[in-house]
Design a protein that fits this description.
single chain; about 220 residues; mainly beta; Double-stranded beta-helix; four-stranded antiparallel β-sheet; 15 strands; globular
Length: about 220
């Protein structure tokens, strides 16, 4: 069984920074472009991950593997979005992440892309794919904004843009809050109605809402 990595998370929840101690001979899988600093005895190898399905999501299709050679090494990891990050230990279990939430994992964790289907994904305007993380080992994922864990026992509703991830004990259905008029004019997006028993991780900011807020302040070209 894979032993947990020693790690620290600093500067949370606004600009979280992850530092992982990698024992000699061990490897850590990290999202592409997330490495911020590292010891000189760490060796990096780039792997293709997710293939064409990852390409469709607009996310990186590459994954970097960092291996400690000739002794232990320290790796510092900085997520792309401003916000928090979370550590979760999988014990022969499954967690589903939004397609931009994955940050790092033990190589013992299997990462797969899960097609949500046209009803759950494409038609809803939500992400087309989820990342399915399974097995036993360490998993880290990042958020846009701070992170709020919510334990669900029954049913619970979360805006699709606020979902970071959820455990496999939950089923979900994507739907609008109200009718079509509410969908297009209320300012609210689509939601996931979760059912079952498990945990949902929710981020306190939604990227689409932030982009709409910033849009009026964008630089304007002078037509004269």
């Amino acid at each position: 069984m894979s032993q947990p990595f020693q790690h620290t998370i600093e500067s949370r929840p606004d600009f979280a920074w992850l530092t992982v101690q990698i024992p000699a001979g061990r490897t850590l899988k990290v999202e592409a472009a997330a490495m911020a600093a590292m010891d000189t005895n760490l060796r990096m190898k780039t792997q293709l991950r997710g293939g064409f399905s990852r390409l469709l999501t607009g996310e990186s299709i590459f994954l970097n593997e960092f291996t400690a050679e000739g002794g232990a090494g320290e790796l510092c990891i900085a997520p792309g979005p401003p916000g928090d990050l979370e550590y979760h230990r999988l014990e022969d279990s499954v967690v589903f992440l939004s397609n931009s939430a994955f940050l790092a994992a033990d190589p013992a964790i299997t990462l797969e892309t899960k097609w949500q289907g046209f009803i759950k994904g494409f038609f809803s305007g939500a992400n087309l794919f989820l990342i399915r993380a399974s097995g036993t080992g360490d998993l880290w994922f990042n958020t846009f904004g701070a992170l709020v864990p919510i334990d669900v026992d029954g049913e619970y509703i979360v805006d699709t843009g606020h979902i970071v991830g959820f455990t496999a004990g939950l089923d979900y259905e994507v739907k609008s809050v109200g009718g079509y008029k509410s969908l297009f004019f209320s300012g609210e997006g689509l939601v996931c109605r979760f059912s079952g028993r498990g945990r949902v991780w929710v981020q306190t900011r939604r990227l689409q809402a932030f982009a709409s807020w910033v849009f009026p302040f964008r630089p304007q070209k002078n037509k004269n």
